[in-house]
Amino acid sequence: MAFGVRAFNESGYTQIDETYGNLQVVANGTTGAMGTNTLLTTPLPSGVGSDAVVFIRPTANTGVGAGNFIIFWGYLDFSANTFVIGRPLAFSFYQGTYDYIVCVPNLTPPTSGYGLNVFTSGGDLAYSSEYNSVECVEAVNFSLSSFNDSFNFTENNAGWASGDNVYDFYVLLNAMGKVGRVAGNSTTHYYRASAATYKYTGGTNPDAQNIKIGASELVAPSSSGAATTVFSTDSRCQVFAKYGG
After folding, report:
1. Residue 96 CA to chain centroid, in angstroms?
2. pLDDT for the residue numbered 188
3. pLDDT tens string 45-100
4. Distance linking the first and last C-alpha atoms of the chain
């Protein structure tokens, strides 16, 4: 490191760095309720660009159905300045709200207050203690090409501190989205999506609380036509984060 400052959390994830713009929070809130809809659309703050990053989590501290879990996926629609959350193709699905955080890099340096500003070599603001920021506790790469490639973030992971609960964590919406199609029959197909499953304690599922990410979930509703289009077969990086406001 030739200049600047670096700060790491206890799991080794970089929190402040001198070489890139750290994620600063520009908006946070709670969406409307999903209800029985297949998609839930929420506006982004005015003026954010395509470098915006959105983290989401279910507002609830308990799941649905016998397995006591919540499955969701979503995507960012920068052309409409919105983000969209979708539900799975399942009998039992969550109908409540979601908490969200909208972040951007390289905000204008504050002109008042006290604390720490860190700049990149190009003079852009990388971090300021005057702005709220998310705590990124763990990141993992996963493939979109397989139903079976997934990752479970559990109490055994370094980023999951003692006393944390599954509903303390946000996941990165940017890492989600439709990735392929699966034939239902000769006239219909379903989308496969990069999604997250929040598993809460209790219910009939014996697993401890965890967050599963991967590209194995089928999402509602079905679509007509042949299943020929594949959106993506690359890999994504999912980030687990906490936010104290």
Report:
1. 17
2. 81
3. 998 888 899 999 999 988 898 789 999 999 999 999 999 999 988 878 999 999 99
4. 30
Residue with tokens 């509903």: 167
Indicate whether 1 pLDDT > 50: no
Q: With contact defined as beta carbons under 8 Å apart, do 94 and 35 qualify?
A: no
Instruction: State the DSSP string of the chain.
Output: --SS--EE-TTS-EEE-SSSPPPEEEEEEE----TT-SEEEEEPPTT--TT-EEEEEES-SS-BTTTTEEEEEEEEETTTTEEEEE-BS-SS---S-EEEEEEES-PPPPSSSSS-EEE-TTS-EEEETTS-B-EEEEEEEEESS-SS-EEEEETTSTTS-TT--GGG-EEEGGG-EEEEEEE-SSSEEEEEEEEEEEEPSSSS--SPSEEEEEEEEEEEEEEES-S------SEEEEEEEE---
Half-sphere exposure of 188 (CA within 13 A, CB side): 7
pTM: 0.84
Kindly tell me if the per-residue pLDDT of 236 is higher than 70.
yes
pLDDT at 231 over 80: no
Label residues 90-113 b or e (16+ Cβ within 10 Å = b): beebbebbbbbbbbbbebeeeeee
